[in-house]
Amino acid sequence: MTNNSAAYNLKFSPIVLKQIVLDVGMSQGAIATELGLKRPTINLVLNRGYIPSSIPDFQKRLEAIIAANPQAMQWLISRNLAPRDIWSALGRDMRNAVPAGAGMRSHASRRNNSRPISPGDPENITFNLEVEMISQEAMKYFKVFRNPFIDDIQKDSDIYMSDEHRYIEAAMLDAARHGGFLAVIGEVGSGKSVMRRKVVEQLRKDGDVIVIFPQMIDKTRVNASSICDAIIMDLSEQKPRIKLEQKTRQVHQLLLERAKQGFRAVLIIEEAHDLHTSTLKYLKRFYELEDGYRKLLGIILVGQVELKHLFNETTHIEMREVIRRIQTAEIRGLNGNIKHYLALKFKRIGAKVEDIFTDEALNALARRLTTQDRQNKTISHAYPLIVNNYTARAMNEAYEMGEKRVTEEVINRI
Question: Looking at the predicted structure, is the pLDDT value of residue 199 above 90?
């Protein structure tokens, strides 16, 4: 064979070498570099027994690489095998195998190759939040001209909104306009910041609510004084007073003046899971600032699930005055909506998700990102960032396997 395209017509028949690479965490990319080849060529070797004719002594050179790897040799010796045996067929389907160690991709866990992926097994989920890129080769292969997940939100219509997202958006707008006290909680990559940006943009368009957004990067240092400073600076050109008592009076007076002018005010704090409990209790005091029966300040906290734990009264009894007044809204995974989410992302770049993914692949991805808690309640981990990473990884893998679309088998491999 003189080229890789012909190799893609070979039957899928993984060889022993593939199991070694997976089990000892060898990098296909590193092997390719040492041999002067590209990674997809090594993938063809592992999955289809392809022997590139451009390197006459290819088999001997690859056997030498294995012989020089102590872990690989230990793997072979423990099975009474030698480097020459790496070309033998495995004798069983390896499409569901995953690396045990660090190869080209980082995996948080390893599952038994013989059992199928199913809900309720957290070990099947890879929580690698480092952004994974779709390779240029894969983009050309699927006729995708730019990455659908890079710089992907330019306007409101670029944001995927499920019924749950719309409910949370409405809750945030209501808290801003009517002096509510709300915590929006979600995992890393769940889209909290996107929701915050959407709501802030809507409030600015409407023009009737002043958004107060503390700029302090280290939220562990946010306290009553710094919150007063943020309110004063975002509501006026005044200089914050020095003493906390004076600042508090200054804040109250400014909120009253803006209310008389027909404006509402909302304080939005991101990374709120880093706030100290003392600061959260101070926020309750800000929430209680009133003009008669009307609240003067809405408060929206945006944070990770650690914030939810702070609102557990059984473990944080000292927080009960806050817990009993704050409303919480949790952003959950996209399971049930993955296809619609990806359809929007690919539509933005002129592509159709059904041309790239089979329905079976999308269903497999949903299963892959689903677990069950101790009460057998279904938990979805299909957060946008994780779905984006899996999508990129699946497209790269499908390209390397020579699949016309991402299939269920491809999803099970990554």
Answer: yes
Report percent pLDDT > 70 for the chain.
87
311 CA to centre of own chain: 24
What pLDDT does residue 185 have? 92
Point out which residues pair with 380 in neighbouring strands. Answer: 370
Average pLDDT over residues 258-264: 91
Q: How far is CA 293 from the centre of its chain?
A: 42
d(C-alpha 261, C-alpha 209), whole Å: 11
> Are 266 and 255 spatial neighbours (Cβ–Cβ below 8 Å)?
no
> Is the separation of the CB atoms in 125 and 381 below 8 Å?
yes
Q: How far apart are CA 280 and CA 301, in angstroms?
A: 10
Q: What percent of the chain has pLDDT over 90?
A: 31
> Could you tell me which of 56, 54, 77 has the C-alpha nearest to residue 6?
54
Closest-CA residue to 78 (of 16, 121, 27): 16
The CATH number of domain 161-331 is 3.40.50.300:
yes
pLDDT score of 92 more than 70: no
Can you tell me the mean pLDDT for 117-140? 61
Say yes or no to pLDDT of 82 above 60.
yes
Contacts of 3 (CB under 8 A, 6+ apart): none
